[in-house]
Design a protein that fits this description.
The chain is mostly beta strands. It has one domain. It contains 1 helix and 12 strands. Strand 3 and strand 4 form a beta hairpin. The chain is elongated.
Length: 232
């Protein structure tokens, strides 16, 4: 009797183990979010009441990450990265830099026909993320959450105005671009958060550094809220 029971018991215990190995081999690859592209709304927090920031202020960004697993199931990981980001703040003011590099703010009269007026920034960024993701479902998608921090170096900035000639009162529209405001803060840093499913995420950034150097321009902190996509 024992000669029959032993093989049966071995088969009974071995079958689930084999099934687990087969399931693991057929499990879809973990999405490591190596490339993240985002479209975001740009906010300017704690600015003066007279300064109005258009709700359609927006920018883009793309970042490359190196995902380092922290457990055998690849559910927890640490990811340093590098990338590029733009920010555009459409507003109702002219920013005039004087001889001491201090920016004076002049609010544009509401009767002036303004077609475009913005501050545009370009930044090189170094983000880091601590990530969690669920095991892939039957479609190969995971729920994911990533909390982190990023720092950026602002390497280009400009203002662009298109509208009535409010300087010389000319009869035609004018286009004016002013490059490189020294009063704008060269560095940006703050916490980040990204939550999503599959290749689509909602993300946010809160700046701890002001947009302008202290005492050299208007007050206020940057904020981003947007949608990001990670193709692989």
């Amino acid at each position: 009797m024992k000669r029959f029971l032993i093989p049966i018991l071995i088969c009974a215990f071995a079958t689930p183990l084999v099934a687990q190995e087969i399931d693991a081999s057929n499990r879809p690859d973990i999405d490591r979010d190596r490339l993240v592209f985002n479209i975001h709304w740009d906010g300017w927090l704690n600015h003066a009441d007279s300064l109005k920031i258009n709700a359609f202020s927006s920018g883009i960004g793309f970042h490359f990450f190196y995902d380092i697993p922290l457990d055998k199931n690849n559910q927890f990981s640490f990811a340093p990265g590098v990338g590029y980001s733009t920010s555009n703040y459409y507003n109702n003011a002219l920013f005039v830099e004087d001889s001491t590099d201090v920016v004076q703010v002049s609010i544009i009269d509401e009767f002036v026909n303004v077609k475009k007026n913005k501050i545009a920034l370009g930044l090189l960024e170094v983000p880091i993320e601590f990530r969690y993701r669920s095991l892939p479902d039957s479609k190969g998608n995971s729920f994911k959450i990533a909390a982190g921090f990023k720092g950026g170096w602002q390497f280009t900035n400009k203002t662009k105005y298109v509208g009535d000639d409010i300087i010389f009162n000319g009869p035609t529209d004018v286009k004016v671009k002013i490059f490189r405001y020294e009063a704008l803060n060269m560095f940006r840093y703050g916490p980040t958060l990204r939550i999503g499913y599959g290749a689509v995420n909602i993300q946010a950034f809160y700046g701890l550094s002001e947009l302008f150097n202290e005492g050299e321009g208007p007050t206020g902190f940057p904020m981003e809220i947007g949608v990001s996509f990670n193709p692989f």
